[in-house]
Amino acid sequence: MDRMARAQSSQRYVYNFNEGGKDQKDLLGGKGANLAEMTNLGLPVPPGFTITTEACRAYLASAIPGERGQIPDGLAEEVAEHLAALEQAMGRRLGDAEDPLLVSVRSGARFSMPGMMETVLNVGLNDESVRGLARQSGNARFAWDSYRRLLQMFGRTVLGVDGDLFEEALEAVRGKKLGDPDDPLLVSVRSGAKFSMPGMMETVLNVGLNDASVHGLAAQFGLDYVSCSPFRIPVARLEAGRVALGQT
Under DSSP, is residue 158 helix (H, G, I), strand (E, B) or coil? Predict the structure, then answer.
């Protein structure tokens, strides 16, 4: 179905970042509306597109209890068109084995809901394109770790796989020690309950970092310092200060 025919027969579901503005949060969500506003102001926003809240409403309206909804008519074609335009703008193709385009997929809503919105990073990596990313970046570890993050995020967010299974498998393969000053094992500590309570469960990330092991982690990635969530700013400042003072 071409663009004109679809416009006459169905709802429009996809907008480029250069379309819309900050007053369209009902349609584009908070993130999408703000990205459109920043793009229109001439700020350096990477190209991309937003799938509207109308698409979400149509999907939810088509669902019956215990089953998934139906993708709205025309949405897949719109996404394909915008993805092709994004590939042309970036000079790369999604999943290309030599130099892949990577995109992030972020959920959104009209209002900010910290801890409740999901993200899938590094979409475009697969068993072939990860090798291309390794060649382009000159860092195989970075490429494979990016691929691992995609599988973990997609598995947990889209397929509902228990995130702890990924962490446990990774720890078993790495065979590292917590706090090792040269190549530390990092773990996540997550609280839980019988029932899901979004935004109410606590998490502590990067357990295993200390004043010695943070330098080992930096060395593994060829960095002068490491920014470590959830303490990005303090750790970054600390390491930047040490570098400036010539400390090791």
Answer: coil
Q: Is the pTM of this model over 0.70?
A: no
> 33-74: per-residue pLDDT in tens?
999 999 999 999 999 999 999 999 999 999 998 888 999 999
What distance in Å separates the CA atoms of residue 53 and residue 31, rounded to the nearest whole number? 12
Residue 246: CB atoms within 10 A of its CB come to: 6
Could you state, in order of their start, the residue ranges of all structural domains in the chain?
1-91, 93-161, 176-248
**Is 127 in a helix, a strand, or coil?**
coil
In the block, tokens 């349609």 appear at 27
Question: Fold for domain 1-91?
Answer: Dna Ligase; domain 1 (3.30.1490)
Q: Three-state SS for 203?
A: strand
Q: What is the dihedral of CA 58, 196, 156, 145, to 10 degrees?
A: 130
How many angstroms separate the CA atoms of 207 and 238, rounded? 18
For 88-122, what is each residue's pLDDT tens digit?
999 999 999 999 999 999 998 888 777 677 899 99
- Rounded to whole angstroms, the Cα distance separating 32 from 232 reads 25
**Residue written as token pair 């790495």:** 174
Ramachandran angles phi, psi of 33, nearest 5°? -65, -40
Q: Are 139 and 222 in contact (CB under 8 A)?
A: yes
